[in-house]
Amino acid sequence: MSLELTRKEKTAIRSLVVTWCANYDREYGCLPLDSDCYMLGKCWTGSYCRYFRESVLPLDPALEVALMSEGPRPDFKICPVCGGPVPPDRRQAYCSAACAKKAHRRQQREYMRKKRGASVDN
Question: Comparing C-alpha atoms, which of 54, 16, 113 is closest to residue 8?
Fold first, then answer.
């Protein structure tokens, strides 16, 4: 079953193709097909350009999950540190290990600030 792409998904696909697709040329379009790029006019989920699906789409994991999953689209949580997408199916709170480390350091800083403040009052 194919679903209609949202405006945000179409924009993300266009951005990925123009920026990262090795087969795309602004002047000639899709070089192997020698025509316009199929992915730029895409309105529905379903069949994708093989090169795009295997090489370009993994660069945007949130879009990849939204396009490749069956059934309703998952709602991604937002990373509290950077605002990036966090997969909803796990207990993961941050989008990456780097964001988790930043959050942990921030929490430790706040804890030590409170601890030092309490010891000064005594």
Answer: 16
